[in-house]
What does this fold into?
Amino acid sequence: MAKSAIAVIPARGGSKRIPRKNIKLFDGKPIIAHTVEAALQSRLFSQVVVSTDSEEIALLAEQYGAEVPFLRDARLADDVTPVSAATVDVVQRLDATEDRFAYVCQLMPNCPLRSAEDIAKSYTQLLSTDSDSQISVVRYGWQNPWWAMRQNEKFQLEAVFKDQLTRRSQDLPPLFCPTGAIWWAKAAVLRREGTYHVANRTGWEIPWQRGLDIDTEEDWLMAEVLLAMVRSG
It folds into this structure.
């Protein structure tokens, strides 16, 4: 049979910086619901699966249309295990024969402003490049990372990129920061490598407003402001 794409939404229950973050209300619904709905509305996936160790998150995810075929093992829900390990676990458990999925898309629930259209456009680019993985990135804006500095215990500064420090900003190439909004990988590659960070990796640029990762209370407030701005025109 033809292989399909699966969306995996990792959402553990033990968030620290924002307690119960994945089910906290954002724009009137649990924040995870925005990611579930975007995945479903993209119409790209044969399955939209939430990986969680929380029965409460599982119930809410199912109410919004996601599948939760099993609860995540505790060993994959601690503070040190990479998120991709939970995604790989889903693929391995749902596709033991390795003939169901061609691509795996990891969508983090703390990126609620990413849209179904964003997911679809990123998939189009993925297919055009034939890369083994593709991660969403945002362009650095406010500060120029080429001018980054380190400070030692004596408060002395050292340039990270010494040869770029005196160049004008308009003469420097753009740099990008990964965001958890939309990460794709070939299923076979993700199984083998266990990570999206592989040699044949490309980036898909998303506007920072829609690629915002909500990790702190300040991020949450920023996301609410951005949403209000979009709706006000």
In short: Helices lie at 31-42, 55-63, 83-94, 116-129, 187-193, 208-211, 217-232. The longest helix spans residues 217-232. The chain has a mean pLDDT of 95.
